[in-house]
What does this fold into?
Amino acid sequence: MSTFVRSPGGSQDHRAGAIIVAAGHSSRMEGVDKLFLPILGIPLIAHTLAAFEAAPSVQSVVLVLSPANLEQGKAIVQERGFAKVHKVCLGGERRQDSARQGLEHLAPHPWVIVHDGARPCVEPELIERGLEEAASWGSAVAAVPVKDTLKVVGDQGMVIETLDRQKLWAAQTPQVFPWDVLQRAYRQTGIDATDDAALVERLGHPVHIFFGSYANIKVTTREDVLVAEALLHRREGLAV
It folds into this structure.
């Protein structure tokens, strides 16, 4: 967990804009675009967008897509009536480039939420909790403690080091940051990062971890699709 002291003077204005980053190439899906695979009869990306549509504090959403899926994404937004999606735009070469593109198309808000489009099991409650944590700590990154023993491996599969998993958390999204902090983070050059928190960390801004959800999986393989479908089916059944 973060060692930074909670700031009672943090902004209590929870209004936020959201960037849904979905401009990847689905390289581990054997040529199938995971964003539009049906899960419970609904395209995967629609589940993700529905959670942000239902989150009360989210005022507007920018959906960032690749050139290959831009028109299909626009059609889903229109057909399913996602009123909070104010812009569907093209992404960039890297994930951080796509997120920066999304921020450029998002109207200023006190907070910006960045979320992976391929995490369809996110819930509105998790989004709202992230905003509450960010208001207290200055940022908020959903994460879960790792369950497995992790080893650093060198040449020929030889173990170099076994890491202390008590200190290791697997970062997820949503990740929540102040508008101006995220803007400065994206302006940095010469840095390759797999998530937005890494860029914010480089600024020296405190990054606070909060407990996410083991159900908040990122779909990267065909097996993940089956897991996501089971999780969403169970949630739907509990909601009946």
User: Anything to note?
Assistant: The two ends are 36 Å apart (CA to CA). Residues 1-5 have pLDDT under 50 and may be disordered. The longest strand covers residues 169-178. Helices lie at 44-54, 70-80, 95-104, 124-137, 179-187, 196-203, 222-239.
